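Bit of a strange request maybe. I'm writing a small parser for structure token strings and I need a real example to test against, not something I typed by hand. Could someone generate the tokens for this chain?
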Amino acid sequence: MPSRSLVLLLVACGGSNDPGFAGGGSQIEEREDTGTPGLQDVEGPGDFEASDVLVSCMERGEVGVENGDEPPEVEGGYSVAGEAVASDSWPVGTTIESSMCLWDQADDGTIGMIEYGNDFDSVAEQAWITGEDSAFTVWMELISEDSWDSGCVLQSLGVMTGSVNDDGDLDLRTAAVPVGIEGCDSHYDSFVGACWATAITSTPNGECEGP
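Reply from user aminoacidic:
Good idea to test on real output. This should exercise your parser:
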């Protein structure tokens, strides 16, 4: 079974890596009937917990929440490895291999995040970090573009919760739910509102910079 990315395997599961596969005329679709806010409605961590489908995905993936305004410093580059623990797309147990960069962690609770996966690269348009001591939660408003430049874009809400170990590794549980798509083949519409949750370890691999 191929390895996939930490946050956004979801779009790949219905398609292929053929550059000619994606590229329809789908418009951004928001699932208001499931209680999922559009990205323009997200202004902080509290808005994520207003999404019924994201909260459900977090429960399925056993993704908790670490509150507090003194989270640990987590900036840096990481190699990510783990597996899916709940999914509406690929099978549970699908392996995760990707790279992640966290940067610009600020006193106001904001942070930058980007993940480089197999099929899609995901960057946080906005992200916040909460927590205390070694435990933290990152709340992410994600934009993902496919790696073959077809113009297919996925918009998602994502959460990752975990702790910093003595060796600097991050032990994480993550959950992500797409809330909209744009420029993708119409069969991708079914992934709006789908759950993808993982259990992963992120190992430091050096400094990094955001886009």
